[in-house]
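Why do we bother with holo predictions? Because pocket geometry can differ from the apo form. Keep that in mind while you read this record for MRU.
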Amino acid sequence: MVASPIRQPARTIWLEGRSICILDQTRLPHEVVTRRLARVEEVAEAITMMQVRGAPLIGVTAAWGMALAATQGMPLARARELLAATRPTAVNLRWALDEVERAPDPWRRAAEITEEEVGRSRAIGEHGLPILRAAHKRERLEVLTHCNAGWLAAVEHGTALAPVYLAHEAGIPVHVWVDETRPRNQGARLTAWELGARGVPHTVIADNAGGHLMQKGRVDLCIVGADRVTRNGDVCNKIGTYLKALAARDNGVPFYAALPVSTIDWSLESGAEIPIEERDPSEVHTIEGVRTTPVGSHAANWAFDLTPARLVTALITERGVCAASTAGLAKLYPS
Ligand code: MRU
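The structure, written out:
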């Protein structure tokens, strides 16, 4: 484990010899700690502990886990089982496991998946940029995002934040309202950190503030990532996304989800069948390790929710922008 002063490495995951290096995201924003993973068991642990998280990055990390398993001499079917059990909702994980399991060379396929994911993030940014440009009608462009769907959730660029970074680089005065995202605070800890490191103006808000800001006309558009999108365009994303989409609809604010093809679950017609991760209630009971609920109270901790396609203005993918519908997705992905 290596701790260093606050400095962003070029990528969230990289290779050193036959080990995988990751940024331990549980240590951000106060320190940048990298971890070296040499065995598939360590990869499974890093995903389970959310040292790596975010749908595209979970997929890429699992792909490297399969490569390590091959070198360890572990049968890939066993490695697959181990890695698939880490987190249930982001479909990128299973997508990447399938890809590597049927590849003749796991190391090569994991490297390809990594590069492909970087390319998809870049393309999502390019397709999303015109939407942000068109929405910029006043002094600053006000964007609201939920959780972390930036560089830290991918390998580079991100998904929802990829167009934001391009807009910022293009000189559009973009400001981001960052939902804190209880209980794990991915917005407050991670999105704020990565936006800050790239000089993008942002303000962290309590999770319940978004509706108020939209009512006051202080949000031009919402853009979120996704952990799984089904054939009909339903979007499963971090818990609380649905409430933002409802508030956006009620206030006439466009609501976009940005995602790569690895997030689309073609096997499911609609989102009702998506398994929603339930995490340890202790994450709700406590804030930064301090218990806030009375002893004896129960807590429940659903990590994701479903935003029905009808509330989504459009999906931004690496192939372009489409309606959140079966027909819309089929147009971009005919096969
Ligand atoms: O539980 P996490 O942090 O892995 O969840 C990630 C998210 O839900 C993000 O909101 C995101 O949109 C999906 S990853 C681009």
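Residues 53-56, 147-149, 153, 159, 186, 224-227, 237-238, 303 surround MRU (CB under 6 Å).
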